[in-house]
Amino acid sequence: MKKIYMIGIGLIGGSFAIDIKKHFPEVVIYGIDTNENHLNNAKELGVIDEKATLADLENADLVIVSIPVDVTVTLLPIILDKISENSLVIDAGSTKEAICKAVEHHPKRRNFLACHPIAGTEKSGPTAAISGLYVGKTNIICEVEKTTFKLQEKALNLFSTIGMRIRYMDPVSHDKHIAYVSHLSHISAFMLGKTVINKAKNERDIFDMAGSGFESTVRLAKSSPAMWTPIFKQNKENVIETLDAYINNLKRFKELMERDNFSEIFNEMENTNYIKQILNGIK
Amino acid sequence: MKKIYMIGIGLIGGSFAIDIKKHFPEVVIYGIDTNENHLNNAKELGVIDEKATLADLENADLVIVSIPVDVTVTLLPIILDKISENSLVIDAGSTKEAICKAVEHHPKRRNFLACHPIAGTEKSGPTAAISGLYVGKTNIICEVEKTTFKLQEKALNLFSTIGMRIRYMDPVSHDKHIAYVSHLSHISAFMLGKTVINKAKNERDIFDMAGSGFESTVRLAKSSPAMWTPIFKQNKENVIETLDAYINNLKRFKELMERDNFSEIFNEMENTNYIKQILNGIK
Fold first, then answer.
1. Domain identity same for B158 and B76
2. Which of A11, A174, A220, A250 to mutate to test the interface with B (most CBs of B within 10 A)?
3. Are residues B8 and B85 in the same domain?
4. Which of A149, B31, B94, B142 could form a disulfide with B48 if both were Cys (CB 3.0 to 4.6 A apart)?
5. Residue A207 in contact with partner chain B when CB distance is under 8 A
């Protein structure tokens, strides 16, 4: 692989670019982005070597698509139209069903590998891109059997070189499960942030009392609405299911408090402490 | 101050002990704890110099009480009974109204300073105690005017030496505001953890997909139920108010999704991004 085209050079694409250049110094990274500022920043920061456009994609050995998932659905078929026969296209979207569906009958379906690298921060844009973002992180690959074997190999070599571990999953299960462990966390953080901001409008100095616990719990509320709105839209039914479950658990907790059933409140928390063992396994 | 008695030598008390010894090497730290293991651990770790009992409190120059808030309410009057005329007692409880009320008519009320250091981690016990926990952190002091001026001075000197900044507040406002920025964060994390654990019972490997975002949002669900149950009990009405507001915001988000109003979903998130500026101010 000599020529890699990054479509979207924000946090996710930019961090891929940085580590690919580190491990494969012979590669030339071309950046494509509708945001001209991001493109210029990425060039100045050395995240990309050259600016490019979709018209150049025929030269690509590899195309990495890391843009909002609604744009991916529209653009992915066009990208596949433009690439050459031996080129590989990878996406990084947080939803997989709509994206896989968008290209299921495309003549170059076998040139596409559907991926979701479980990595990121609450920041966005090329200035947020960092080296090592993917080390030890999970990359979920969907419908691996639909990709040409040789191109699978290329992708796996790349992912293992930058330190990722691989899990295979079908797109429907991916979207169902990721709603719980990722999409719901974002909504819970956004609504926590909203609740406290609303309160702070009437009660001054409230944030002066906030500590590291609040900061950790609300961190994801800094995330990009442009990225997250289409994720929630594409994964609407699963996300609503998780919200229902979450709201019901909160209501039950509130009802236990109203009924002064604090021994059961204790049990609720003690049972959930089990998350310790689980989180120790994540790292 | 020569002899400091720590009642409760977990994360909060232990971290106070470590930094007090660092800055005041002449001080002898005595530990009192109902948990004999904690007491022995604290001694072995050098967090305390000597083990002690409540009967020894007459020798104390300073007593720091960092135990569950329900025990503080019961024990604080007894502690004040036992100390000498010039001794200072400080608490570290996450609620302030019930604690202040418990001693409002005590003849030694002026020997007590009601404090809430906004610091901690999700860990507990003396092995979780760390140096520097309080550096740059806020200590909320309630009803400062009810403490003898000389003892206020002693306390402020101690807090400033270990790096804390001070905010003054009445206990009612403290409990109202802290419900939003601390107590609610804990419930939101506990219920997020519960929701995902419940789901994982039926869907294996779900946690294999969890990343740093989930980890951050759910971190507080590792917290101690023995510490948090009495906090929720003492601050019941304020906590229920925050839960109502939070549940309503989550419901509204869900309804916007059900009605496919994703432009408003975008706005909800964009408005809450304002939390960035606020969090930058916390550190």
1. yes
2. A250
3. yes
4. B31
5. yes
